[in-house]
Amino acid sequence: MKNLIANHPLMSIVGAALLGLSTLSIAGNSPYSAAKSKAESAYDAEIKHCDTLSGNDKDVCVQGAKAKRTSSEADAKVQQTTDDARKDANKEKMAADYKVAKERCDNFSGSEKDACVDRAKAKYNQ
Predict the structure, then answer these.
(1) Vertex 117: Cα angle to 91 and 67 (nearest 5)
(2) Which sequence spans correspond to the domains of the chain?
């Protein structure tokens, strides 16, 4: 039973999450550093999951993981800085989310793809 639990695919994700929690306590005095470490740990776990996929599904997964990491780091930056940083963080999030939406458009071709990209540009102000 122990081997079944240890070899379960979710255990690597759980382990990475626990590693992220442990880095919160050793990341130093800065909440920004702790949040950034947590974002990196979550990103690493998601990339491992993405490696089990192929084709455009993998591309979308990787872009999604990058977007989540960017979003988490941007949130940490917001907590540390001023209103100007909030605006920058929102721009970074929008750009990261746009990349994911644009990657999803690769599932289409021709005018459908063009329309998909146009909708993504409009939605994410690109």
Answers:
(1) 40
(2) 2-123
The per-residue pLDDT of the chain, averaged, comes to 80
End-to-end distance of the chain based on CA atoms, in angstroms?
Answer: 51
pTM of the model: 0.50
- The predicted structure's pLDDT at residue 100: 96
H-type alpha helices, 27-54: 31-50
> Following CA atoms 32, 37, 43, 45 in sequence, which dihedral angle do they give, to the nearest 10 degrees?
-150
For residue 122, the tally of other CB atoms under 10 A from its CB is 9
Residue with tokens 């690109």: 126
Which residues does the chain have with pLDDT short of 70? 1-29, 81-83
